[in-house]
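Lab notebook, bench 4. The sequencing result for the construct came back, and we need a structural model before the next group meeting so we can plan mutations. Quick request posted to the team channel:

Model the 3D structure of this chain.
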Amino acid sequence: MKNLKRLFRNKGVSKVPGSKPKVLPLSQRWTGDLGPWTVFVVCFLIRSLAWAGYAKGGIYEMTKDLTNTPGSSLMAQGIYSLAISVGEVTAGGATGDFNRTVFPGYFGGGFGSGLTFKILRSTIGTKLLLQDGFQVGVPLDASAQIDFSDSLQPSSMASGLAVVITANHLGQRRDDTAKFQTSLDTVNKRLTITPDVQWDANTLYDIVMTPQLLSVDGFSLERIAHVPFVTVLDPHQDNVVLHPSLDDRGAPADSGAEPTAGSLNIHVPPESLAAFSAVLFTKDPVHTPLRVNPQIILDANEKARLSGSGYQIPLIIHEINAYDANGVALGPLAKSADLTFTLDRTSGLLAGASSLVRTNTLSWWVLDETHHLWAKMPASQHSAKGQITASASRFAVFALMGQASNSTIDSFVFPVPWRPHGPNAGTGPGQSGTVGDGLTFNNLPSECSIKIYAIGGELVRELRHSDTSGSIAQEKWDATTRGGAPVASGVYLWRVESPTDSKNGKLMIIR
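Done. Here's the predicted structure in token form:
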């Protein structure tokens, strides 16, 4: 009795405003007055060690939930609470000194606003295939197993558990609930969820659990939890394969009806793939490859940069592969699949893209693994929605890459006429220019020359333009000759020449 009294003489619960109280290790027993806990100690000694209940003193509350014993642990309101487990007696005797006593056994617990009820882990099916936080390639008859920190209260599942269809096999946003069945394993504290018949193929599901889900002791799930997964692709139906992402809650990001900037999807026609499959993406195959040696990609990048004068640099690289149920990579597609990448519609480019890249030069390229080269895919199409699409006959490593623009078709000069001292002089819309601003050649090719001729054919001035050293697609002329003298009033001819193209025009100067 004396030693047990020492055991429960405890000043280990302390409350400091703005901080969490501490739990002292078992080896540090308490000194000081027992206070309100005396009643608790006496009651505990009278009852059997197989009993579990709770007692309360002041603003603190202690609950006992003994290992391998039944009983409930109810939690009343309090500023802080202490969860404690007192284990079975173990071999060895007590030891200590004048102010502490150590008993063999164990203590487990912690402080908080109540006993924590949470999800420990989740898996779906027997094979775990992950992509960016999602489990993908889930068989249509697979069961989901979710392990909790305590057993579930069955009656709470009706309001606290749902399986939501987030996107269908065509990549269309949905918000439907799926039918499912459940079973509980109270020993392992595991919930098993199985489809009512089977899951839909190539569908994004989200198992949603809310705080309305309760433990057998009446504690709420600590927060809303999500378990998203994508089912296996059925080769006999039309499919759009998405690359979904998670929001900060762990739920599938809601992109709405329109594709988001930076998203990639693949349209796979029926009978394109040879088997039920999982299609995997990686946005960074250099650092997280699926199959291809990253050095091959690095070699191809360097060759592209050198051959494209710095304009030909991959903006995005995706490795895409399809695997059957045994994890074997599938071969060429029986029908071509369409790759569609969505740009930022406000800027027309990718986030972080090089300023040298012009949207109209972007196209899809595929990696030639044998020669360590990027090969341009034919007929990349640009849409008004800021999407770039190309057809692929096999899954591989793909890049979206720009190149130098050689087109002069849209080149022009303004203002015309240039009249820097006239009544409408200025740089605004409809104004005729200033001496300081000169004339501007616009929509130029990435690399080109600009030649200005007098009406008789004499060369007045030649300018060189490069996007790498000046304004993109623009070059200014200060209306001077090669010797630096101001040109006279009159009509002049101009010619823009790129490595593959040229365009002629006229301009007028009025001094």
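Residues 67 and 87 are 6 Å apart (CA to CA).
Will bring this to the meeting.
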